[in-house]
Amino acid sequence: MVSTTASASTPRTRSRLRRRNTLAGWSFILPNFIGFAALTLVPVVATMALAFMKWNSYSTPEWVGLDNFRRMVDNANFWTALYNTTYYAVGHVPLTLVAALGFAVLLNRKLRGVRFFRTALFFPYITSLVAVAVVWNMLFSPDAGPVNQFLRAVGVDSPPGWTTSTTWAMPALIITSVWRDMGYYMVLYLAGLQTIPGELYEAAKMDGASPWQRFRHITLPSLRPTTFFVLIMLTISSFKVFDLVQVMTEGGPGRSTLVLSQLIFREGIEQGRFGYSSAIAMVLFVVVLLVTVVQFRLQQRKER
Fold first, then answer.
1. Do 176 and 228 belong to one domain?
2. Which of 41, 60, 188, 257 could be joined to 249 by an S-S link, Cβ 3.0–4.6 Å?
3. Domain check: are 187 and 279 in the same one?
4. Span 245-270, mean pLDDT?
5. Is residue 1's pLDDT more than 50?
6. pLDDT value at residue 73
């Protein structure tokens, strides 16, 4: 009788423990999931629905099908913003990656004051972006800016107009963003470098490998997972750039620095065309998704 009761209570006890563990797990997950659902999931789903509607926040949403996307294809501002966004990403991603990797390799050595230099390079990333934009606008001033004064001192008679020039405004934005972001990605590369066993470098050095050969055949392959992560994060942040452009150039001069996220802001928040702005947001999402998928595929091929 005792054994029967014990055997019957064992499954009941296990069931109670399982339910208790499940409830404990949900108690940890739910607060974060509720915040994610309210602030991210619901707005994303609403944006997907609004992309096929006409709505100005005052009237009832009206289903228009693909009209927003047809209008987008015929709108010159959209193609200009798409080109500028791609231009920014193509310049920002490789330059930031190379700068971050270079400084990480340099500051991974045992140098005097290395902690100070690491902190100094990381500091711009945590500085207010508005302050960064204002300071760089002053540095790029065509007449009194230190950048052009330096260029004149080294013999450049007609230095660029930078943020006042339709040709040089986007390079000015790229330079500023690289300076601001490289410290953060440098820290990621430093973490990756410190996981590489020192014995690999010692063995390669004994075999007569030059510093470039050690970097090419040991450092770069070992940093492949870190590089892949940095590449994905840089791509996403480049395609959704908004605040730096808004503060430094406001999309100008003309439309030379107008990007997709800024066009979404103008059409939605300023003009009240939420359906049309949601359609642009959908296109931006698809572009970023496609680029990310391509990067994942290329990474998988390299690993094979």
1. yes
2. 257
3. yes
4. 92
5. no
6. 92
Let me know if residue 246 belongs to a domain. yes
191-243: pLDDT as tens digits:
999 999 989 889 998 888 898 999 999 999 999 999 999 999 999 999 999 99
Residues 166, 119: Cα–Cα separation, whole Å: 35
Q: Is omega for the bond preceding 253 within 30 degrees of 0, making it cis?
A: yes
Q: SS3 of 270, please?
A: helix
List helix spans (H) across the chain: 2-36, 42-50, 67-73, 76-106, 114-126, 129-139, 146-153, 169-193, 198-206, 211-214, 220-222, 224-239, 243-248, 260-265, 274-303
How far from the centroid of its chain's Cα atoms is residue 124's Cα? 16
Cα–Cα dist 145/141, whole Å: 4
CA-CA distance, 185 to 211, in Å (whole number)? Answer: 23
Rounded CA separation 23/18 (Å): 9
Task: Indicate if the alpha-carbon torsion angle 60, 62, 63, 65 is positive or negative.
Answer: negative
pLDDT at residue 2, as a whole number: 45
- Tokens representing residue 83 in the block: 């080109």
Of 250 and 15, more confident: 250
| pLDDT the model gives residue 11 | 75
- Return the structure tokens found at 56: 């100005």
3 state SS of 121: helix
* In the block, residue with structure tokens 């791509």: 235
C-alpha span between 151 and 23 (Å, rounded)? 66
Cβ-contact 88, 260 below 8 angstroms? no
Same-domain status, 37 and 127: no
